[in-house]
Design brief:
Elements lengths: L2 E6 L3 H14 L4 E5 L6 H8 L3 E5 L14 E6 L6 E2 L2 E5 L4 H104 L2 E7 L6 H12 L6 E5 L19 H9 L5 H7 E4 L4 E4 L5 H22 L4 E6 L5 H7 L2 E8 L3 H21 L7 E5 L16 E5 L8 H9 L3 H4 L3
Parallel strand pairs: 1-2, 1-3, 3-4, 4-6, 7-11, 7-12, 8-10, 8-11, 12-13, 13-14
Antiparallel strand pairs: 5-6, 9-10
Helix pairs in contact: 4-10, 5-7, 7-8
Length: about 425
Amino acid sequence: MQIRVAILDQDQNYQNRVLVALREKFSKKLQVFPCNSTEDVLSVIEAHEVKVFAINKMINYDISQIPEECAIVYLSELKSVKEEDGTPVVCKYQKVKNIAGELYNIGKNYDKLLAEKKEAERKAEEERLEAERKAEEERLEAERKAEEERRKAEEERLEAERKAEEERLEAERKAAEEEQKRLEEERKAEKERIREKRRTPDVYAFISAGNSEGSTTTGISLAIANADDNTNILYLDFKQFSTMRRFFDVSRTDVPFSDILTKAANGELTKEDLEKAIITDMKFGFDFINNEDCAFELVMYLENGFKKLYETIGELENYDIIIVNLESAISKINFSVLDVAKKVIFVGSGLPDSNKNIERNIEIIKKYDEVNDCSYIEKTNILYNRFVNRNCSVLHLSGVNVIGEINVIKEKTEQRVLDTMSKMAIFGQIVE
């Protein structure tokens, strides 16, 4: 009887030597075929109807692909291991005679072993099916008894569930009422908090270090950057020669700003007057009062009238922030605004003349603080606009915060300048 054997070892040298030896000395018992790689294993086995496939254990190969009719043998360098995971192991490094004998015996006995294995599997399957049949009968009987018990308990369970559902719904109803009450109280408290805060809105005052330094554009940019559904902003320009027409649509003014200032100074300003003077700019998303031809009233009435104006704006309970654009020169008029301001922001270019004007104004504030025992200097900040590094410098003054520097924005229109400037992170950091 001749057994057909296929061999695959990663050591081609070894494979060739053992192949020659087996063919020369044991050709009557064995007909040996080499496998050059894992790719041709199945083709060799099928083409030559191989009975035993010997593969080195170190080769990564899925032996489940080998046909069931072909025995599998692991080639190993160890003599002590005879079997691994149910697969016979043959030591590579022993006499060829022994290797031939082991391969022959494995192939010779494989049909018998395979038949015994299948018979054992058949008996195991019969036993399994019988066990499943009995288990199924027992399960059905247990289910029948359980069903009887379940039906018996179902009415009690349904009744208990009905009562529990009634109690749950009642509890949910009460909880919903409590939650609605709590939310309503929270809404009222939040509404009252907002109303209370808006009675004294935060004031951010911008003061330009000189002509064309940018207090108007930076003030408007701050308003654009912070106006949203939860933050209402009112923009006021207190410059005697305002440039608001460059930025706002001022075609509609029911009450002139001059009347507002006059009534405020005389203590006659009402909420209704303010409401008629306030305009909403839909493009920017915040309100403003148009300052047009009010130089006389600003000089004559603002100092005494600003407190009343501020109080009346607070009575509207509509604004979180007021942004004010003031004259460059510090005067008593400015101090009436600074008194309620949260922050005072000097806007300069960083050029020598601009820095001198800022230093002079800050010195005035410090002297005012000393004389009047107050601390306006703590509100004082500097924001540099159109800042060019090679020509400009940053002031470092005691007690004065430098917000940052804005470089020259090269845009063709005022609107584009505002669009670019208002998106800068610096304007999201000024408001507290």
